[in-house]
Automatic annotation (TrEMBL):
It holds the Pfam family Gln-synt_C. Belongs to the glutamine synthetase family. The keyword Nucleotide-binding applies. The keyword ATP-binding applies. GO terms for biological process: glutamine biosynthetic process. Its EC number is 6.3.1.2. Keywords: ATP-binding, Ligase, Nucleotide-binding. GO terms for molecular function: ATP binding; glutamine synthetase activity. The lineage of its organism: Bacteria, Pseudomonadati, Planctomycetota, Planctomycetia, Planctomycetales. This is Putative glutamine synthetase 2. It is an enzyme of class 6 (ligase).
Length: 449
């Protein structure tokens, strides 16, 4: 966005406060707000932030053993191209930010910078990532002072659409006003669970739109006296909130979808298969970023549509990677791969970086994902799954973190410092959760993301 256009919007919408937000390694959108009068100063110099914030857990705890302590500073540097007036909060605007060093260079711990380095690597190969995050979330309404899920109806229920309409319509409108293209809407299987799939976007915008999506859905709720939970397993006895990632690689020049091959089985190209194989080969390390909370692992229940076993398959909604069939006559535009073991507590920049790190390795190795799985892996015997290499997902976050620690590809490509920081921070989070009564995990995460 041009500076003069931004000025026009600040005046036209009577903006009184602009927030510069970033998503740190913990996955929470945080930031600092400033008055519009200082916008040039902020764009030129950024806002101050303690380095320690990269090591702070979702519970705002700074582990004493982490490498970043209260001495040392970085800058929150808003990206002018992400400026948006908030349609659901009059007087407010938002910019998404990078974290830079005080010298103005990309900071080694900034998640948005990391994604940029992977996107640049793709670009050197003539490739562009297109991706969409597909969030499920739980709507809570206030019933006599208690927050309760909005409905207890069925998946895709028309009755649930009636009940949720006053909550959903303002969300759809606010998303569209910010350039997030809504593709569909439907109630999901869990109590009060709803889903708004959005259109895929290229590169950084796909991750930025995930931030805008969550900010908007939560913000619309707060402005209208209801609340949203993005917690992976908000109700222990009903379906979890996933955030599947749909992705494909496109040719930069011809703008063709390179995951599509009309002559290949399921229309899925060799490139897509190699990428899929790379993700499967590094799955537990990838999941350290895509299923990043202790609660994430409660979601992986057999026959709950969340997937539980490392596998891939065409239109298989219990596989880790679903090769999504193209729509008739639009195959080239619509063939994509859906990654299931991710949820809305993930940092979208780290999640996409993790997928690219693993997927590009699959391409470099010319890896094969093996035979597709044509049934629900849960219906196979343990011996069958084992013979086909369909491993059960890590049982909890600590297992994924250990896999990440042992994954030399991730150590190299994410950087040892970033991995070390992440492991320390996440292990402190686990310790905190373990110190709570079991039921308290629910309250600790419920409205945090
Ligand atoms: N709620 C399911 C999950 O936890 C996903 C349902 C679906 O959209 O297939 O991932
Ligand atoms: Mg769904």
């Amino acid at each position: 966005m041009q500076r003069d256009l931004l000025e026009k919007q600040l005046r036209e919408y009577n903006v009184e406060l602009v927030r510069a937000i970033y998503v740190g390694p913990d996955g929470i959108a945080r930031g600092k707000a400033f008055l519009p009068g200082s916008i040039d100063d902020v764009l030129a110099h950024g806002l101050g932030l303690t380095q320690a914030q990269a090591s702070v857990t979702v519970f705002d705890h700074l582990p004493p053993e982490s490498q970043f302590q209260p001495v040392g500073e970085v800058r929150i540097c808003p990206d002018i191209n992400t400026f948006q007036v908030l349609p659901y909060l009059p007087g407010h605007a938002r910019m998404i930010s990078n974290l830079n060093t005080i010298q103005g260079d990309p900071w080694e711990l900034c998640p948005r910078h990391l994604l940029q380095t992977f996107l640049d690597r793709l670009s050197e190969r003539g490739l562009v990532l297109r991706a969409a995050f597909e969030n499920e979330f739980t709507i809570y309404r206030n019933v006599n002072g208690n927050w309760e899920p909005l409905d207890q109806t069925n998946c895709f229920s028309s009755a649930a659409m009636d009940m949720a309409s006053p909550y959903i319509l303002p969300m759809l409108s606010a998303l569209e006003q910010q350039g997030v293209q809504v593709e569909k809407y439907y109630p999901e299987a869990g109590h009060g669970q709803h889903e708004i799939p959005i259109r895929h976007q290229a590169g950084m915008l796909s991750a930025d739109q995930q931030v805008i999506f969550k900010e908007t859905v939560r913000g619309v709720a707060l402005a209208n006296d209801f609340r949203i939970s993005f917690m992976p397993k908000a109700s222990p006895d009903s379906a979890g909130n996933g955030c599947h990632i749909h992705f494909s690689l496109w040719d930069k020049e011809s703008e063709q979808n390179l995951f599509y091959d009309p002559n290949a089985a399921f229309g899925l190209s060799e490139l897509a298969l190699q990428f899929t194989a790379g993700v499967l080969n590094h799955l537990p390390a990838v999941m350290a970023f895509t299923a990043p909370t202790t609660n994430s692992y409660s979601r992986f229940v057999e026959r709950c549509w969340s997937s539980c076993y490392a596998s891939w398959g065409p239109d298989n909604r219990e596989a880790t990677l679903r090769a999504a069939s193209g729509f008739l006559g639009q195959e080239s535009a619509t063939v994509n791969v859906e990654f299931k073991p991710s949820d809305p507590t993930c940092n979208p920049y780290l999640a996409l970086s993790a997928l690219l790190c693993a997927g590009l390795d699959g391409i470099d190795q010319g890896a094969s994902p093996g035979e597709p799985v044509m049934t629900d892996p849960a219906l196979l015997s343990e011996a069958e799954r084992e013979s086909r290499g369909m491993r059960r997902y890590p049982s909890d976050l600590s297992v994924s973190l250990s896999a990440l620690e042992a994954d030399s590809l991730f150590q190299r490509q994410f950087g040892e410092s970033r991995i070390q920081d992440y492991l320390t921070m996440k292990r402190a989070e686990i310790e905190m959760i373990n110190s709570l009564e079991h039921a308290a995990e629910q309250t600790a995460y419920l409205f945090r993301f």
